[in-house]
Specification:
Blueprint: H1 9-15, H2 25-44, H3 49-68, H4 72-96, H5 101-130, H6 133-159
Helix pairs in contact: 2-4, 3-4, 3-5, 5-6
Length: 171
Amino acid sequence: MALKNKYTLRMIINSQDYSKISSIFLFKYIFIPLAWPITWFCLKINLSPNQVTFFRLLIIILSYFLVYFDKDLTGYILIYLALIIDCVDGQLARVLDKASYFGKFFDGWVDCIFEITFPLIISFSLYKMNGDESSIIFGMLAGLMNALYWITLFRYSINKPFIKEHNFSNF
């Protein structure tokens, strides 16, 4: 029995508001368009945006294990797939009108995990290739910088309602 899909690829494409995208070229012109058919397929098999985000987390973990066990090319292909799937959950939420606070939190949390650990796996891969310990140190520093970035965003979002506006024009 074939599943009915009332959503068309054109509806998915039209749900994308390019005026809100200020990301890099790779996402705007490659990853997002590649995500459209995956979004259509996810709609066809009735996946929710949060299920897609969880699937992306599993792909990230699997890709890191593959890189660790010397299957670098397959691991990096899965990392690119995870980046494409990062666009799918948002497209699903827009098309289905199912955006939720938890979904935004969960997607951001998976993004945070990925952005902190990605430099570490790259540096580990470089260390395996050339044996230079400094690549591990640079990877750890890059991961730490990403962690500090996320902590700063978190602290700002928590304290934003309490920020007082000061008028310094009286001086």
